Amino acid sequence: AKRLGRNTLCFFDPSMQAALDLRSTLETELRQALKGGQLRLFFQPQVDVARQVIGVEALLRWQHPQRGLVPPGDFIPLAEENGLILPIGLWVLDSACALLKAWQKDPLLRDLPIAVNVSARQFRQPDFVAQVQHILETHATHPGRLKLELTESLVLEDVEDSIAKMASIKALGVRFAMDDFGTGYSSLSYLATLPLDQLKIDQSFVRNLPGKKNDETIARTIITMAQGLAMEVIAEGVETEVQRTFLEAHGCVTYQGYLFSPPLPLEALYEFLRRSNAV
Ligand code: C2E
Ligand code: CA
Ligand code: CA
Ligand code: CA
Questions:
Q1: Would you say 11 and 1 are in contact if contact means Cβ atoms under 8 Å apart?
Q2: Atom of ligand 1 nearest to the CA of 149
Q3: Which residues contact 84 (CB under 8 A, 6 or more apart)?
């Protein structure tokens, strides 16, 4: 402890200081990353029972000059706290829409939708709807090819605001998926009132299929619920053929996971598509 003035004791914890230093370094570097083009999108294929690619999810990576490829879990929480998630989120949306536009010329890519993750802070911006509309118009993107992934907790945090914004964006032709479905506390009554196109079964329920009775029940219930509400259902985190078989047997016919492919850089995605969706 270091004495400051007469009665003030200030306890200096070096590990805490180190953590604070790392944070501010990370923040400075993240600003540079955004300006300097170090952010990259990877794309994870979403496939049907015939292993045809029916869509991709855009997943953010930071190509750090020293640290290499940094996963989103290592910088998105900080970006959400300091607000950098707003320009980052716009960059992701803009990049996805620009790609969708470019893909329209290629028969292999033309019908492929891109799913983009939206953070709560980004979605709660009063002008979020206008931002989405503006980006779609800038690139003259087919809105039906863009899918926004919202989590249950995001929607629940302000249901009124969520429903209003979703309805406006839906009216533009954009589609919605409920990400990590089953991990929040959605009530059935409002689930039916949301303009959702797809439920994504969270990977935590897929991991122990088949065998873990509770997870089997949850997975089956989500599939039944999606069918009843005329929504698509996709399972994420599918790593084994037995998981896939269980899901198919219970009516889930679209999948995302390492069994098919990890998230890929663009060139590798094109290669993957050439092999699986040959035209
Ligand atoms: P998420 O949206 O639930 O994305 C799925 C995560 O599961 C991805 O991690 C993906 O690489 C991983 N994954 C895919 N298949 C498998 C599998 O078979 N097994 C296992 N164990 N994992 C699998 P990733 O890319 O590290 O992303 C983590 C999270 O970061 C995402 O979770 C999403 O919440 C967030 N995120 C990613 N990109 C963005 C973005 O552009 N904006 C925002 N706001 N969040 C993003
Ligand atoms: Ca997602
Ligand atoms: Ca997810
Ligand atoms: Ca997740």
A1: yes
A2: 2
A3: 27, 30, 31, 34, 78
71-81 as b/e, with b when 16 or more CB fall inside 10 Å? Answer: ebeebbeebbe
Measured from the alpha carbon of residue 149, the closest ligand is 2
Q: Which ligand 1 atom is nearest residue 89's CA? A: 42
Q: Answer yes or no: is the ipTM higher than 0.90.
A: yes
19-56 pLDDT, tens per residue?
888 888 899 999 999 999 999 999 999 999 999 999 99
Calculate Rg over the CA atoms of the chain. 21
Q: pLDDT (tens digit, 9 = 90+) per residue, 89-119?
A: 999 999 999 999 999 999 999 999 999 999 9
CB environment 112-139: b (16+ within 10 A), e (fewer): bbbbbbbbbbbbeeeebbebbbebbeeb
User: What mean pLDDT do residues 72-77 have?
Assistant: 96
Kindly give, in sequence order, each residue whose CB lies less than 8 Å from that of residue 82, ignoring residues fewer than 6 positions away. Answer: 27
160 phi/psi in degrees, rounded to 5: -60, -50
Question: Comparing C-alpha atoms, which of 39, 131, 26 is closest to residue 82?
Answer: 26
DSSP 240: S
Q: Which residues line ligand 1 (CB under 6 A)?
A: 44, 59-60, 71-73, 76, 89, 92, 117, 119, 179-180, 203, 236-239, 257-258, 263
Tokens standing for 15? 């590990």
Peptide bond into 210 cis (omega under 30): yes
Which of 71, 43, 42, 57 shows the shortest CA–CA distance to 235? 57
Nearest alpha-carbon partner for 247 in 219, 269, 224, 279? 219
Q: Would you say 56 and 97 are in contact if contact means Cβ atoms under 8 Å apart?
A: no
